[in-house]
Design brief:
Blueprint: E1 21-31, H1 41-44, E2 45-51, E3 58-59, E4 62-64, H2 71-83, E5 85-89, E6 94-99, E7 106-119, E8 131-135, H3 136-142, H4 146-160
Parallel strand pairs: 1-7
Antiparallel strand pairs: 1-2, 1-4, 2-3, 2-8, 5-7, 6-7
Length: about 160
């Protein structure tokens, strides 16, 4: 079995003209097949969250958009590297400016929905991160990033249509 390796380093990293690092991510989701159909979308959707590398809190997979890939390729790569999932990437949910928790710098992040079709048994960052399917309520409660919670709300609105 060959093991995939996560990209590292910032040599290919993209930045805005103002010097903000460009980050892309996704909200891996699936719809419950056995749930009642008269309940709200937030009861029918499960989302996959991951722990941060330091293990504090939960978040959605995200990382740098590199110069040798499209934005969609970067979002799919981050989902595979950090969460070990693949699927159908859908149209972006928006763009957010946010401040790094570790560094005192601003990033520009774009999020996409990822309708998960495959969960890998092995993935590059499986030793660094935990993954867990949660309800929308659990994700709202546990995700420490406001901009990711806003992306989740946009996903729910889109799915309700």
């Amino acid at each position: 079995m060959s093991m995939m390796i996560a990209r590292q380093g910032r040599e290919l990293q993209r930045y805005t003209s103002c010097g903000k690092r460009l980050v892309v991510g996704c909200i891996p989701y699936k719809l419950k097949k056995d749930g009642p159909f008269m309940v709200g979308m937030d009861k029918m959707v499960q989302v996959l969250v991951i722990s941060s590398q330091k293990g504090h809190g939960m978040m959605f997979p995200k990382g740098g958009w590199e110069s040798d890939e499209t934005m969609n390729q970067a979002a799919s790569r981050e989902a595979m590297e950090e969460a070990g999932v693949q699927g159908h990437l859908e149209g972006n949910l928006g763009r957010w400016l946010y401040k790094s928790n570790r560094n005192n710098v601003f990033y520009e992040g774009t999020m996409f929905p990822l309708n998960v079709t495959e969960e890998l048994a092995y993935w590059p960052e499986m030793e660094l991160r935990k993954r867990r399917w949660v309800t929308v309520a659990e994700a709202r409660e546990g995700c420490q990033h406001i901009w990711m919670r806003e992306a989740l709300e946009r996903l729910l609105i889109r799915l309700e249509r």
